[in-house]
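the three lines:
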Amino acid sequence: MSMKFDRPMNWKELPAGCLIDEAATSLRFKTGDWRSMRPIWDAEKCIHCLFCWITCPDTAITVQDGKMTGIDYDYCKGCGICAVICPPKASAIDMVREEK
Amino acid sequence: MKTIAKTGNEAMAYAMKQINPDVVAAYPITPATEIVQIFSNYVADGEVDTEFVAVESEHSALSACVGASLAGGRVMTSTASQGLALMHEILYIAAGNRLPIVIALVNRSLSAPINIHCDHSDTMGSREAGWMQLYCANSQEAYDSLIIALKVAEQTAVPAIVSTDAFIISHAMERLEVLEDEEVQRFIGEYKPRFSALDLENPKTFGPLDLQDYFFEHKRAQIDDFSKVLGTYNKVAQEYAELSGRYYPALEEYKTDDADVAIFTAGSTADTAKEVVDGLREQGRKMGLVRMRMWRPLPVEEIKAALGKFKAVAVMDRSDTMADFGGPVFLETRGILYDAKKKPLLTDYVYGLGGRNIDISDILRVYDEIEQVVKQGKIDKLITYLGVRGEE
Amino acid sequence: MQQYFEVRWHGRGGQGAKTAALLFGEAAMETGKYIQAFPEYGPERTGAPVKAYNRLSDGPIRIHTQVINPDVVVVLDASLLESINVTEGLKDNGALIVNTQEKAAAIKEKLRVTNAKVAVVDATKIAVEILKKNVPNTVMLGAMVKITGVLEWDSALASIKEKLEVKFRGRTEIIEGNVEAIKRAYDEVEVA
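prediction for all of em together
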């Protein structure tokens, strides 16, 4: 049975057992609007240590060919761990208020 | 088919050997220890392909079974009494995840006071956990029921407990007939799990958090699956009868057609009561017996139809609900009969706690008293504690 | 109701009362009987008085009650006569079989048995002489089979030997010794 996500399923539509029938369903659940502080990444200052990529709880740091390429604001909740972990000498991530 | 002499525990271990499960995880407890002890010999002697997991508690035993079953294995274990109590939270997890694990259980009282002998308080205390429950009257039935229950469990994705009475059956050697290994294998067939945690091509999430938005839907679906167990059981029991010549209905009636009164009970006592019924009939007293074999799910319509025929019925409960309203079989039977068109006068006898012997004379007394209820047309005493010092 | 032949075994923990009941039950089954064999479990350990039971019938056995009125009582250790009422519930015209050095008549008088026959055999002596150990349980089976007459001697002996072969895989001297001891008890049992 394939699961439906466009509306709440009724009990007859659920797969047997309390399992989620397919992988990576969290991709459908965007958490970017939970954010009150936004990380701003400065590509010039970044030394590509990837500490932020390792520690981000939402895998919201995008990386290509071993280099950091930015932040996925669809999923970033603005926790600020990336800004804290960023080495002081680089200081490539700043947290700014979402409030306009 | 061959005839052998085996105790209830030996019979259950032998059935497990012929089932040849993928995984057995277990922790020993009197009086069920022998089941896994004998089974571990089968493992050591290479007579089964089972992965035997020795663990440090029953909680871990059933947890390991849950893991193995999620991985797609055919899984069994065994326990009794305090062991089942320690498994309690995992019982719900196995059932909620629809894992068809089968427990070969020996019914033993729960502490305190500490005791190793028979009553049904252990499984009765787990009757809301979402497991099928079959109570067996003898070694033969214990052997047969384990094979039947495994097939029903796997077809319905509902786990099962098959139980015998402590020592009375578990340690009593009796003559029984067993099937050939290949016959058992053909009957149960290859297990085709609905999912497997080891299926890397189709990854799934097992046991996620489920809050107000979905928990109820999941439970409702589980209850619906549970409602299909009786139908599947009836079909599988019929198939088993064709194979073995032994048929076990979910609810058994013995000499009830022309009877005015009956006893409604379970386990080894029901077997003994059949003998009493025969004796009474030799005296011209037409009395019957209804045996509760499946207690989860409840065979509601069957109970209503079977007991509705009588003028009076004595329920015999081998445990108490501590509701100050008798035993669980009595309580639930009263509920079932509430809207029956014809219903008997219903009394309860709580008996045999902690293995207190139930003798033929005790059962005769119950028949005498229930006959008196019919004569008087009313019940003097709703709940009787039978065979305990200090009563009357 | 069906007719049953019921046996109660008295022994001390470790003397093999349960094993004797199981062996007797299996031997009876080989001769076509329906059987039950069950011990009575309590907190007993080595040396404590223990009981085991048999129930035999020509048809399927449905009752699962304790044996209250046995046809036969077997006592594996005569020292139990001092502390246990071994004749309790013994049926009229039943039999009491005791492992003792005393004469049957002496035991009969001592226990004031008037309704049943008393048989004695020195199973301990036989066991020590042949098996070099005080294990009277299997030895008593010889006396049991002779006195009760419920089992046919040759097939019972063959069945017991078969079970011993399974239990003592390949240890011929133990298997043959047991068979010899059982035969001797069969010959030496004395009745009053």
